[in-house]
Design goal:
Layout: E1 6-7, E2 13-20, H1 24-35, H2 37-44, E3 46-54, E4 59-66, H3 68-75, H4 88-95, E5 99-102, H5 112-123, E6 127-130, H6 133-150, E7 154-155, H7 158-161, H8 167-173, E8 179-185, H9 188-197, H10 203-212, H11 221-224, H12 227-241, E9 251-252, H13 260-268, E10 271-281, E11 300-310, E12 323-329, E13 334-339, H14 344-360
Parallel strand pairs: 2-3, 2-5, 5-6, 6-7, 9-11
Antiparallel strand pairs: 1-2, 3-4, 8-10, 8-12, 10-11, 12-13
This protein binds NADP nicotinamide-adenine-dinucleotide phosphate.
NADP nicotinamide-adenine-dinucleotide phosphate binds near residues 22 and 56.
Length: about 350
């Protein structure tokens, strides 16, 4: 099976999905697919059906396929799909899907569970779309090798900047450009906390405020300690720079260690403090990104560091709920991309765009 799918009586190609993880992104994806049903049929000749959805606490198996709207109606506001939970491998096998949509949580450490889901899907002849950065950040070479061995494809646009095209930009819009490095604001939660601290709040007060407003998780350490940004940096560097690194290789500064005075000083100097991720390639280990021209053969280094940005810096205006990245390329010089106030629907859109890509290129 593959994203080629099967032809239906109406002449539409049917694409069957198995959803692993049924949280906010999966729900938003189902809503988007339901909303776009007509466009998918008329413009792309495609009908999307869901044959399985699974979490650790429930499942839904419908081998004949259900429309995304019907799946949403069945699951409704429940925390999990209504049938008993099934092991992911069993559900994948029983789903007979064309595409695994992997939307489980980012795991601590080496993303073994999500990587296993993806490898199982390839072995079963499925393509994969994921918004889960873990497998790309920790295991990209292994995942890419498994896809190649199985003759299958994987797309992951939403792993780095929600739905904002970064991988597609490099792959399709900037042909033959090499990514030499990048500078980015990859985490909106820390933007929000920094801006709240800039109004005189302590870190703890700013964090509590971010949590009460729904911007920060109950356990915010992934964002605050720089791991989320490091995972995104590793994912982009691994795919676009063949870096072969993991998030553990990226030097991280925690926002907890940034005194409020530093943020206030940046403001009074007319600057803006952000947790900036920098990835670069240098001739020798230990070279800083400021050290001079990059060496195409040098190792890839990365760091996440609280940085007071001059107001003219392209990343300085990246707001509380936004993400931005400057991509340093050889042929197109520096390209700046920014997502203004991205939310869950934009992440779902990135998954949708990846699905369309798989459908179109068959
Ligand atoms: N939210 C965003 O805007 C956004 C943006 C970019 C990327 N992402 C990424 O997209 C993925 C999904 O995000 P989300 O916001 O939808 O997360 P979420 O709301 O927390 O939902 C996660 C889902 O995964 C399930 N799950 C967790 N571990 C599982 C496992 N081992 N097997 C099967 N199901 C499992 C959870 O259910 P149980 O707990 O019942 O298992 C839940 O249904 C995450 O990797 C996230 O980092 C999200």
């Amino acid at each position: 099976m593959s994203a080629a799918g099967q032809s239906s009586a109406a002449g539409l190609r049917t694409i069957r999905l198995c959803l692993l993880g049924f949280g906010s992104v999966a729900r938003a994806l189902c809503a988007l697919l339901a909303q776009q049903e007509r466009v998918l049929a008329d413009r792309h000749g495609v009908r999307v059906l869901i044959t399985a959805a699974g979490t650790r606490h429930g499942s839904l198996l419908a081998p004949a396929g259900m429309t995304p709207a019907a799946v949403l109606a069945v699951i409704g506001e429940r925390p999990a799909p209504p049938q008993a939970a099934r092991p992911a491998d069993d559900l994948l096998l029983a789903s007979r899907a064309d595409v695994l949509v992997e939307l489980t949580v980012m795991e601590e450490g080496f993303a073994p569970v999500a990587t296993g889901h993806i490898e199982t899907a390839f072995a079963l002849g499925m393509d994969v779309v994921t918004a889960n950065k873990g497998p790309i950040a920790w295991n990209w070479r292994r995942v890419a090798a498994a896809a190649a061995a199985a003759g299958r494809r994987i797309r992951f646009e939403s792993t780095v900047m929600d739905g904002l095209p970064v991988f597609s930009l490099l792959e399709f819009a900037l042909p033959d450009c090499r990514l030499l490095g990048f500078e980015a604001v990859f985490n909106a939660t820390t933007n929000y906390i920094v801006d709240a601290m800039g109004t005189g709040r302590s870190f703890d007060e700013a964090l509590a405020h971010a949590q009460s407003e729904g911007y920060a998780e109950a356990d915010p350490s992934h964002d605050v300690d720089g791991w989320d940004a490091a995972c995104k940096a590793a994912a982009l560097a691994n795919v676009a720079m063949d870096a072969g690194i993991t998030p553990a290789d990226i030097e991280k500064e925690s926002l907890r260690d940034v005194p409020v005075e530093r943020i206030l000083q940046a403001r009074s100097d007319g600057k803006r403090l952000r947790l900036v991720t920098t990835v670069w390639r240098r001739a020798s280990v230990g070279d800083a990104p400021e050290a001079g021209p990059a060496s195409p053969a040098g190792p890839v280094r990365g760091r996440v560091r609280a940085t007071a940005l001059d107001i003219e810096h392209p990343l300085a205006p990246v707001g509380s709920e936004s993400l931005g990245a400057i991509l340093h390329t050889d042929l197109m010089a520096d390209v700046f991309v920014c997502e203004i106030a991205g939310l869950v629907p934009q992440t779902a859109y990135g998954v949708y765009a990846d699905l369309l890509h798989l459908c179109r290129n068959r």
